[in-house]
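Minimal example, chain plus fe (ii) ion.
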Amino acid sequence: MSQSIDSQFHLVFPVVILEMTLGLDAAAYAADIRAVIGDGAYTTYHDADINRRFLALDATQELIGGIKQIATVYAKKINLDRGRHPEDWQINIWANVMKQDDSHEFHTHAMSSVSGTYYVQTSPDTSAIIFEDPAFHRKMYEEPIDARAKQTGDPPYYNYNNWYRKPPADTLLMWPSWLSHRVERQRNDVERISVSFNLDSRQNTK
Ligand SMILES: [Fe+2]
């Protein structure tokens, strides 16, 4: 054998999740969102008036600009033939405040291409976002993973059923909208404030 076996492996059907720090003033943004959303609401998604006030925040508009720019790079990375320019993207964006014991069950974001969340306020033991392996439902039994992968939790994440992330404030996560995810129960009383979004683009030929 003249070649290394390592060079013969193909990564097929990979799921690409982007994670990056944006450098925004997340603490000030958290206070803005807190003021807009009030005490009773869990998400601005369900209240058009509150969401309009959320959209009117300068920080929200700055964030939208950043997300659209990043999405052009992300779309290229995953071979999407759309969203080649930031202005091509249409965005739906809303804010969430999770209090102690709040959680969010598995779901996907239907009718969009790219989704994500910007974390505005978290704590070290904040509830994790959990992504589910899209092949999970095709597995007839749980394939045990080796001890090294189990212990380190480091990439590559082959054979994982779920992938957990507890992003610090000012972190953006972006993923394909079809990827199932949930948020585990918030165990402490530090509010977990986040901004989620869906991106779509009808302009894919410019
Ligand atoms: Fe979601």
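Strands lie at 18-21, 90-98, 104-107, 114-121, 129-132, 162-165, 171-176, 181-183, 192-200. Residues 107, 109, 181, 196 surround fe (ii) ion (CB under 6 Å).
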